[in-house]
Write the structure tokens for this entry.
Amino acid sequence: MSFVITLNDFIVSNEKGQLDINPRIRAVIRATGVPIRERYDLSKIGKKLEGELEQYVETRTTLFKELGEEEVVEGKPTNNWKLKSENLEEFNKQHKELLEKTVTIDVNPMKFSALGDKAEGFTGDDLIACHAFITE
């Protein structure tokens, strides 16, 4: 069995402006006191979401390269890309489509009760962020 999640549901920009997995989801994935089987599944979910994040960054970078230009400092390329103003609308349109993409994660979703009564390190809001793979 598997679950489906949109990229927008788990990818966020952190305080440094870097793309990352939603910290609420990460908190649940790293929870302590979770029974071993569920800990294994949460670890797998984390690894699979990391892989999807990597693919998203790669695709988004390609979009920047197609619709932008590389910044040059002192005649040398910087590998930093800036969107051309005339392409901003097109970038936003395509980027929105990308964030709405659903991905299938081949790990069984789990019930909240399976996390056990000794699970620690997350809040109710964290669990809500995990709605795609934690039910009830």
In short: Residues 11 and 78 are 25 Å apart (CA to CA). The radius of gyration is 18 Å. The chain has a mean pLDDT of 94. The chain has five helices and eight strands.
